[in-house]
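User: Run a structure prediction on this.
Assistant: Running it now.
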Amino acid sequence: MAIYHLTVKVISRAAGSSVLASAAYRSASRLHDERLDRAHDFTRKTGVVHSEILLPDGAPEHLGDRERLWNAVEAGEKRKDAQLSREVEFAIPREMIQADGVVLARDFVQREMVDRGMIADLNVHWDIGADGQAKPHAHVMLTLREAGDGRAGAPDFGAKVREWNATALVEHWREAWADHVNARLAAQDIDASIDHRTLEAQGLDLKPQNKIGPAAARRLSEGLEVERLTDHAQIARRNGDRIIAEPSIALDAMTHQQATFTRRDVAMFVHRHSDGKEQFDQAMSAVMEAPDLVALGHDGRSVERFTSRDMIATELRLERATARLATQAGRPVDAHHRTAALLRSQAAGLTLAGEQRAAFDHVTDSRDLGVVVGYAGTGKSALLGVAREAWESAGYTVRGAALSGIAAENLESGSGIASRTLASLELAWSQGREPLRARDVLVIDEAGLVGTRQMERVVSAAQEAGAKVVLVGDPEQLQSIEAGAAFRATVERHPYVEITEVRRQREDWQRDATRHLAIGRTADALQAYADQAMVHACETRAVAQAELIDCWDKDRLEHPGQTRIIVTHTNEARHALNAAARQRLRDADQLGKDTTVRTAAGERVFAPGDRVMLLKNDRGLGVKNGMLGSVGAVTPTRMTVDLDAGRSVVFDLKDYAHVDHGYAAT
């Protein structure tokens, strides 16, 4: 549970601040200050990844220009001590990719600020701290007056709105930001959350320290803002004293964010909350010698890992819940329902035999816990589809879940089980919706990826509701650093069925390569593909990209009825490969008329025939993040996409703008 405070400050002339300079500084732009007839050049401001003026409905369009906007704000205030604007700053979860972080901030500003009538100058920064970790955050400059109606000769601004400057609105924004972020994290299958409450309100006896960002650090090194540095050090020292006196504070804070940790993690935490080497050493010793610290041994990388007694208690609750499920016999499926399901699958060309049949019998028996261990490609989804028919014919409701949206989609498409992410499932439960019931069967796919805390919450909820749980996954697939990971521990303690025969590939060497990947013998798997001339090395990245596009284009021409996608590691490469692939289609005259549209990631050019990828789950449209399709029609405000799944979706880009070219993906 991370803590992300939303902070607010007022820009006023009395404070000696220029709203124009402040806005420019945040956005890294060049602006002209009409008051002094001079230009402000802030283009060297680093870390800015998105900058935009958001206007409320009916506002004068020319205020969408940053220079005109803030010069108009300055000109509209006559008093020397006038309040010019309000600046809001909030941190963005670093777990999100940059594009999603921008959308997160933009949606919040639009809903909570612009829709109230404010003009917002939004600037998103993706700074990298001294520790090498991203420190994404947003600055929003807000007007304090009503915008004019845009009529010729009418003033740009009207009266100030007193409610916009109220403390109650700031408190609302803080809570609303936490709710907004947590809902988006859940929808994007990220097992993380934030808390708008103070450390004190969360029961953590530590004090927040001043933010010392890159710019502030430079000013401090130059001897400026000495008071701020002194205050920062004093808070750090008080926190260090608390950790020394009660080291469980540090353990509680760290396990709010991660189930296990290393000595280095402890050192980083203590370093942030202590002052000087002497206190750091004392606090480190206190934490590492704390009675609530539990050593777990070394992980697969020979790094010693630790946890807290509270985390151990969570694992014990999980074990008790799985033990109760394993001994409860409340979900018998009659023999005739099983036989009928098997016969229907045979009629459809699918015969369960050997390991698959054993797994089918295991998950449809009377016990409330079923566990299936299998490598990728062994036909787990197929056998679950047959099991679903048996369960449903016996009167049970089957629900699927997985950690990620794409895994949930794969479970649903492969088995017919209506599926969603665990995060969204828990979100619904927290709001009193869609609770588990006694005649439910909950199938959790890729269970090896699920963390202990989340697995305990979900399994305990199922056990309390009297539902059946079926865990499916591969405990070796995840390179887990969490000793006693939830699925692995369940496999070790309860009966399970293992499926090892790879069915997805037809060639023996491909099956062997898949097994090698499953058990971590990656070099052997790659060598197998290299021996079949399916791995190609190039001297430079540019050459590799050029040859890749050539191969893609050749395959496109030789197999026009098939779909294909390029996979790369970075967004920079993705953009380049998307552009190169699209140019091949343009050169071949296979694209319609280009139309520039505004997407969540910025302006893009689309044409009928373009390949597109949808980048956000949307239940109303029935689409999920990662879906691919082709553009059927496009205007600046509307798009029709023919999905590869066999249906078309039509949407207004103001409602759903999470699209990008779909030739290449990360």
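The chain is about 40% helix and 20% strand.
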